[in-house]
Amino acid sequence: MSRYHWVILTLAYIGGLLLTGFFGFPNPHPSWLQWGLVILTIGFLTYGTFFFLKRRWRRCPRGQFWVIIALVALGGALYFQLRIPQPHPNDISQLIKEDFRPQTVRVLGQVLSEPRLTNNQRHRFWLKAKKVEMIRQQTPSKLVGGKLYITISLAENQLIYPGQTIIIEGSLYKPRSPKNPGSFDFKNYLAKEGAFAGLKGEKIVFKGPEPFWGWTKLRQRIIKTFTNSLGDRKGLMISSMLLGRRAVDLPPDIRDLFIKSGLAHILAASGFHVALLLGIVLKFTQSLSPKKKLIIGIVVLSFYTGLTGLQPSILRATFMGITILIGETLDRKNNSIGSLGLAGFLLLIMNPLWIWDLSFQLSFLATFGLIVTSPAIQKKLDFLPPKIGSMIAVPVAASIWTSPLIMSVFYSFSFSAVLCNLVTTPLITLIIIGGMITAGVTFISPDLGGSLAQLLALPSDLLLALGQFFPRLSLSSLAVGKISLEILLLIYGLLILICFNKKCQKRWGILSLFMVLLIVTPIVYKNITQLQITILNTRYEPIIIIQERGQVTVINLGDENSIKYTVLPFLSQQGINHITAIIVPNSQEINSLLTLKPDLKVDHFFYSLGKPQENGQRLSSTETIMLDSTKIYLLNTKPFTLKWEIAGQSWLWLNSGNNSYNLTAQDFNQPLDVLLWSGKKLSVNWLEKINPKIVIASTPFISDTLRQQLQNNKIQLYWLQQDGAIQWIPKTGLQPVLGNQEIET
C-alpha cells in the first residue's frame, strides 16, 4: 500500500474514535440505537468521501479498499469501548451501599501518584486499593482492587512517593453527578481516570519505606534547588513551567493566576518545551555527527519525558522531536503534519481514551496551528524583524486553533489572553531555557545550580506582575455561553478551508467574520427572546436566577464557594456578562461576588441586612422592585421573604423555618403558583393558608408525613437535594435541568 492508503486508514481510525461522541464519554454500555447511528454515519461518510474523490483525485483508492476503511473506523469505535474502565466485581466501590452514605474504612494500597494540593488545602493522590477493613463492622479484612481518589491533610514532613505501600483511614464514598448546570462533574472525572470511589482520609496509620531512587526523587532535587534559591512561590512556579503542573505541587493561587491570564498552557509540559529543549541539544551537539546527535537527543528527550510524568502532550511532542532527529540523521526533509499525525496515531493506539482528553486535544490543535497558520501570519509580519515576527505569530496561531474548543468547554473567551501571550512569550522563553540549563547543572552541582537559579528572580517577578495585570483590564474575558457541537465543527471546518483552499484564503476576512457571527448570533438571539427562572441547588439556601429578554436578576448568592462553584459557572454557561440586579439577604454576599468576579457588570445591588454598601441599596419591608415586567416585593426581612410575579406566575421564597410570619390578603392578590421553601419545618396549616400549586424544597430532609400531606392537597413537590437544579420556562413549566441522576436519602 502507498503512503496515501496508510494516511486514509489512520484518519479512519481516528474518525471511529471521534464517533464515540454519540455515546457520551464515558458510557460503557451504549444502546443499540446509538450503535446503529454510528454504523450509519460510518457508511455515509465512507461512501460520500469515495463518491466525492473518485472523479477529483486520480490516486483515489478503489471501492474495495473503502470497505476496509469503514471496518477500520468501526474497529476504532469498538476498541475505544473495550478500553473504557469499568468497576470489577472486587472493586472497592462495590462495598458502598446504594444509599451513598460514606463508610469508615481502613485501606491498604499502593500509591500511584505524588500528592497535589487542592483549593481547600488538602492533598490529593491516587491509590491502588489492595485490602480494606470496615472499621465499624465486625468483619474480617477483604481483598479488593480498583483505583481510589484520596484527599487528606498531610504534615510538611509527611512525604508520600509513588510505589509506596500505605494504610490510610477515612470515609469511603461514591462520587455524585453535578446538581447544577455548568458545575464540575466529579463523577465523570473519576470515571475517566478509571476510579469509581473516593476516600476522605483522616490519618495514615502505616507508611512503607521510601524508594531509594525514582523520578520523584529527581524531580524533588530540581524543585528544591529552585525553592531554596527563589522561595516557594517563584521556585514552584519555575519548576511547574519546566516540568508541568502535574509534576509539581503548585499553590492554587498561582495556578488560578495563570488560568485567568490565559497562560495556563505554560504550566503543562508540551511541544513548546520540547522544541526549546531540542534546540538546546542541537546547539550543544552541532559539532557531532548526526548519529551521535540522534542518540543524545533520544536520551535527553526520553529523560525529560520521564521527569514530566509521561503526560500525553509531552509524549506527542517527544515522538515528533525524535522524528525530526531521525529525519536529520537520514538527511531527509521532515513532514511536520505527517509527524504530528503519526505521533497522534501511536498515542491513540496506546490509549484511545485520550481522544476525549482536553489537554490532548488542545496540544494537537495548538501544534497543528503552529504548523499550518504560523508561517502565514509571520509572512504578513515580514516588515518586522524575523524573531519579533515569530514571537507574535506563534501565540496568535495557537490561539486561533485552540480558542473555539476552549470556548465550548469553559463557555468564555479571554481577550487579554492573546495580548498577555504576545507580551510574555519572550519572558517565558527566557525562563524555561534558563530553567532547563539550571536543572541540568543541578544534577552535577546543586550549589552551582542554585546560583544560576537566582538569575531567574527578576524575570519571574516580571512574569507574575504581568499575570496579575492583564486579567484586570476592562473586558478581559467574555462569557459566550454553550456552543453547540455543530457550530464547533463548522468553525474548525472553515479554519481548515482557509488553510488549504486558495479561494478561501483570499476571503479569509469574510470567513473570519462569519465564524464570529456563528458564536455571537445565538447569544444575541437568546438574550432577546429568553424567559426562564432557574433555581440552583446549594448546601443551604437556593440561588434564583431570573432571565427575561436580556435582563438578569439574581436572588441570593450564598457563600464564596457557592459563588465560585455554582453561580459563576452557570453565568458563563448562559453567556451572561451583565446582571441587571442582585438581591441578597446580607450585604456581605455582594463583596464576595465582586472579589471573585471583579469584571462582572452589575447595575443594581439590593440587600436587606448588613453593613451599608456604597454600591448597594438597602431594602425596606413592603418595597417593590420593577425589572422589565418582573415585579419583586420584599415582604419581610426576618425571615427573609420575597415574592415576585412574572408572566402571570406568582412565586414566594421563604428562607427560614419560622412560620409565624402572618401573610395578609394584600400579600397575595392572586393565587400562589410556586412556594420556594428553605426552612427546617413547614406547617401544614400555614401551607393551606397560602395554598401553592407547587412546592420547591431546599432542605436536607423531608419527612414522609409532609410528603403525604402535600400529596393529599394535590401540591406537586420538587426537592432540590434529589432533583438538582430546577428550571421554569413558560412553554414547558417546571422541570429538573439535569434530570434525576441519583437518589439521595
Q: Mind explaining what this structure looks like?
A:
This protein has 745 residues and is an alpha/beta fold. It has 5 domains: 3-83, no CATH class; 92-212, Beta Barrel (OB fold (Dihydrolipoamide Acetyltransferase, E2P)); 218-356 and 424-477, no CATH class; 485-527; 530-736, Ribonuclease Z/Hydroxyacylglutathione hydrolase-like (Metallo-beta-lactamase, Chain A). The strands form 4 sheets. The protein has an 8-stranded mixed beta sheet with strand order 15-14-13-12-11-10-23-24. Helix 9 crosses helix 10 and helix 17 (485-500) packs antiparallel against helix 19 (508-529). The longest helix is centred in the middle third of the chain and has 30 residues, at 415-444. It is globular. The mean pLDDT is 84.
Evaluate the radius of gyration.
29 Å
The average pLDDT value, as a whole number, equals 84
Under CATH, the topology of the largest domain can be stated as Metallo-beta-lactamase, Chain A
Inertia-based shape: globular
- Number of distinct beta strands: 24
List the uncertain runs: none
Helix/strand-derived category reads alpha/beta
Query: What is the total domain count?
Result: 5
Separate helix tally:
24
**Strand arrangement across the biggest beta sheet:** 15-14-13-12-11-10-23-24
